[in-house]
Amino acid sequence: MKVKFYVILSILTFSLSSAQKKANEKSKFNQELATSLGADRYGMKGYTIVMLTTGATQIADETKMAELMKGHMTNIGKLADEGKVIVAGPFLEKNKENYRGMFIFNTQSKEEAEQWVKTDPAVQAGIFSYEIFPWYGSAALPLYLKHHKEITKENL
């Protein structure tokens, strides 16, 4: 199960690296941008991935569940506005690992990522549990967020 996860991450990293290599061939290196994003000489940096899993708590009350999920989404928006979470989203299919969604946090510190994920009301309520992994990816990853707001008509 974790092997599959690492294979997916490897493919994603390779894809980002390949895309970055092609982009570098077409564009000029920007030291100021690289420095501002914390990029190493390969244009990469460390992040922390948090995989949300099915938690031990099941809530039958639909109103309470809706309230917790609204808080979950609000918290994601807050963390994104603070530059702490740069990728967040649910998985579209059930899987044997019970992964429900993931965050990519803009930190190399597992402890800091854990503090941030614990601010989530759905995690606090036990609806979600989590696993934490270090990850190495493009330092430009945080830049997509400003464009995401430009293409979003409606929030969940």
UniProtKB/TrEMBL annotation:
Q: Which UniProt keywords apply?
A: Signal
Which residues are in the YCII-related domain? 62-135
Among InterPro entries, the record links this protein to: Dimeric_a/b-barrel (IPR011008), YCII (IPR005545)
Does this entry carry the keyword Repeat? Answer: no
Signal in keyword set: yes
Q: Which Pfam families match?
A: YCII (PF03795)
Q: What is this protein called?
A: YCII-related domain-containing protein
Organism, by scientific name, is Chryseobacterium gallinarum
Q: Species lineage, top-down?
A: Bacteria, Pseudomonadati, Bacteroidota, Flavobacteriia, Flavobacteriales
